[in-house]
Amino acid sequence: MFQIRVFPKEIPIGKEAVKVITYNVNNFNTDGKKQLPNIADWLRKEDPDIVCLQECPVESALRMDSVAKTLSFLPYYCSTRSATKAAGNAIFSKYPILRFESILYPESSNKSLFAVMDIQGDSVRVFNNHFQTTSVNAVKPRLYQAHAEGKQLEETEAAFHMAFQMKKNFVKRATQADYIRQMLDAGEGPVILCGDFNDTPASYTYRTVKGDLTDGFRDCGSGFGYTFRQLKRIFRIDYIIYSPDFKGVKSDLSELHLKDLKGKKVVINVFPSLDTAVCAASVRRFNKEAASLPNTVVLAVSKDLPFAQGRFCTTEGIDKVIPLSAFRCSCFENGYGMLMVDGPLKGLLARGVIVVDEAGKVVYEELVSEITNEPNYEAAIASLKN
């Protein structure tokens, strides 16, 4: 919910960066005033590549082609209007939308919108979600009024009604999150997933949908990250989550990104430091195995400096494994959750193995139970053959 960065994280700028905005526009209405022109002006200044909107108004109130005309600087769009005329979601993009699908949930007016985009030559799956509402705003006026008038019985009834509605909607949100998780697991390729989850980072909804993906605020944000304006403004319920690409620094100081290895199988051997016997042994073992692994790249990732990694590989004759230093990038810490947060090795990467297939999908992952244990080499290699 809150995090402080002493050193602000570098945000990538350039042709490879993709800027995404998610916004519950509340029917483009604030206190009875139409806000589409103001929102459009703000978006134009922000210059995003992709905008995911929730609670777009019903067709009778505002035609989607009118919204598209106002947001013409984002020429490609799709919406849940293709499946229902009710209020729903829309995606506007600078990138071509190859196909899309409206996701309507039973016994709910909330929706999700799924699209596949051509982003710089990659087919990227984009999910725009508006999960089940909490119903807090619907009950709150009755609760506040009873409290102000000193009507204790009515106040208690309103509180119980709110609790009942919230519990009922928790179940609906969980079902919706399960459905999106099934779609994520069934598909292949990179993902951008965002929207109004109506739930906190501690919730089942958030944890189920996020999985191994990277939370944009946790990765790059700073300060107090609330997005819900009610209840004292202490809750974050809106998110931008994405596939955890990574970059590492090779021994020649050039950078290697996971996307650079597209079309190949990748074994990522992560460990604390080459200056420990177990870490060194794992690199030797994977170097030996790599010779018999077709179309496979094996990476050895630690926070050792590239110079130290280069010396180790030269001394040990390591020529089938690519050493990568994570000293410039926190992607393994945040995106893959590999940072040790306590103990004498606090601040270094934990020991584990991640295997990614040719489509960029994680097919195997292991985090050792004890840092002194070697990884399960046989299981990791077997996953390459499945």
Mean pLDDT: 85
Q: Which range does the strand content fall in?
A: 25-35%
Number of beta-strand segments = 21
Radius of gyration: 24 Å
Number of helices: 10
Termini separation: 40 Å
Strand order of the largest sheet: 8-9-10-11-14-12
**Largest sheet: number of strands, sense, barrel closure:** 6 strands, mixed
| Protein structure class | alpha+beta
General form: globular
List the uncertain runs: 1-8
Give the structure's gist in a few sentences.
The protein is α+β, with helices and mostly antiparallel strands and 386 residues long. It is built from ten helices and 21 strands.
Describe this structure in words.
With 386 residues, the protein is of the alpha+beta class. It has ten helices and 21 strands. The strands form six sheets. The protein has a six-stranded mixed beta sheet with strand order 8-9-10-11-14-12. Helix 3 runs antiparallel to helix 4 and helix 4 packs parallel to helix 5. It is globular.
